[in-house]
Amino acid sequence: MKLTTTQYAQALYDAVHETGPKDHDKVLDNFVKILAENGDLAKFEEIEAEFKTIEREAKGIKEVNVTFAHPLEKNHQIMDELNKVVEGKVEFKTSTDGSIIGGVVVRVDDTLIDGSVKTQLENLNRELKG
Predict the structure, then answer these.
(1) What pLDDT digit, counting tens, does each position of 77-116 carry?
(2) Using CA atoms, how far apart are residues 8 and 59, in angstroms rounded to an integer?
(3) Backbone dihedral region for residue 3 (phi beyond 0: left; psi -120 to 50: alpha; all else: beta)
C-alpha cells in the first residue's frame, strides 16, 4: 500500500513529537530508510512541506500569502511591522507578481483580500460597461 505525502508527514510529526530531542536524528534516519524502501525518496520535499503545515496547524499558526507587484525595500518594512503585530501567530510567505500592477494581494486559508491595481481597474471597467 502506497502512503500519501500527508500520511508520511503525519507519521513523521507523530514520531518526532513522541520522542525526545536526543532521539530526533534516529527518527529521521529511520524515516529516510522507510522512504527508500518504499521508493518514495523523491517525495521528500512534498512531505517536508506537508510536515510544516501540520506543525503550523498544531501550534495554531496561520499561513498568510502576501503578493506584491514589485520587490521593494518598503515591502520588507511592511512585513517587519506586520510580524511585530501578529507576534508569531502568523507565518508570512511573500512573492511578487508584476501582473497585479500595484497594490497587494493577501490570501489566508480560503479568504482573499485583493487590493491590486489590476483588480481595481477590472472592476472599474465592468462598472463603466455595465
Answers:
(1) 888 888 888 887 899 999 999 999 999 999 998 999 999 9
(2) 19
(3) beta
State how far the alpha carbon of 93 is from the alpha carbons of 9, 16, 41, 68, 127, in Å.
21, 25, 26, 11, 33
Rounded to two decimals, the pTM is 0.69
Nearest to 113 by CA among 65, 71, 70, 69: 65
In degrees and rounded to multiples of 5, residue 40 shows phi and psi of -115, 20
Q: Which residues of 39-67 are buried (b: 16+ CB within 10 A; e: fewer)?
A: ebeebeeebeebbeebeeeeeebeebebb
pLDDT digits (tens, 9 = 90+) for 10-62: 999 999 999 999 999 999 999 999 999 999 999 999 999 999 999 999 999 99
Task: Extract the C-alpha cell encoding 88.
Answer: 508569531
